[in-house]
Write a structure and sequence with these properties.
seven-stranded mixed β-sheet; single chain; 6 helices; 222 residues; two-stranded parallel sheet; Rossmann fold; binds S-adenosylmethionine
């Protein structure tokens, strides 16, 4: 039987009275991530599925910055779904959809909403997901993205990566050790493994961008 997904909400304290969780890392990294998404997706008018939306803070931030795109947040953890919907309600934004309960390893994805049919998404984004989850989650995201992205759509990952077997900072060496101590199936991923998986699934590598705090944005295209 598949293990339940860890409840990341436990790490970040209690929600506010409106039900919103607040992740400290969101405040540190949101500007760089949002600027890159504007650069990558700013011309689009379609739908963006977010895998592992967590608190939901990114989804509402991106939706505010990219008003012509519709954001579809998702997460498998019910506490996270509650927080995402609380941030959505508080934002008043019309281009963030209600959160979908989605474990990306349970395929085919049941996105359950009218416009999210296969070959229809402009982008799939996964921020800080694949190192805090088993490697099978990275594979499942890519396999699902291959099915749901329209031709030319973007698969976008954000987080820390090893490259040529090397971490890019002492901070990431320590972070990787802490992740693996917490759960041996977690850990900072090798960029080459991600690229090989994307290639096997017909997604073309487009770019690797260094962002603050030794993180990277990795983009593949369908
Ligand atoms: C570290 S949190 C990151 C949350 C948010 N994206 C952020 O950057 O603040 C990792 C997220 O991945 C989600 N996740 C873990 N395994 C998953 C799976 N199999 N399918 C979908 N999401 C998953 C968790 O529920 C959690 O919300």
């Amino acid at each position: 039987m598949r293990k339940p997904v860890e409840n990341f909400a436990k790490d970040i304290g209690r929600p506010d009275p409106a039900g919103r969780l607040d992740a400290p890392s969101f405040h540190r990294n949101k500007e760089g991530i949002t600027a890159e998404l504007i650069r990558l997706l700013g011309d689009g008018h379609g739908d963006v599925l977010e895998i592992g939306s967590g608190t939901g803070q990114h989804a509402v931030t991106f939706a505010a910055a990219l008003p012509d795109l519709t954001f579809w947040p998702s997460d498998p953890v019910s506490d996270h779904i509650g927080s995402i919907d609380a941030w959505r309600t508080a934002s008043g934004l019309g281009n963030v959809m209600p959160a979908t309960s989605l474990n990306c390893c349970e395929r085919p994805w049941r996105l359950g909403q009218r416009d999210l049919r296969p070959n229809n998404l402009d982008a799939v984004i996964a921020i800080n997901v694949i190192h805090i989850a088993p490697w099978a989650v990275a594979e499942a995201i890519i396999e699902g993205a291959k099915e749901y992205l329209k031709s030319g759509g973007a698969m976008i990952f954000y987080g820390p990566y090893r490259k040529n077997g090397q971490h890019n900072s002492q901070g990431n060496i320590d972070f990787d050790a802490a992740l693996r101590a917490r759960n041996p199936s977690f850990g900072i991923r090798d960029l080459e493994d991600l690229m090989a998986c994307a290639d096997r699934n017909g997604l073309r590598f487009e770019s690797e961008t260094d962002l603050p705090a030794n993180n990277k944005m990795i983009v593949f295209r369908a």
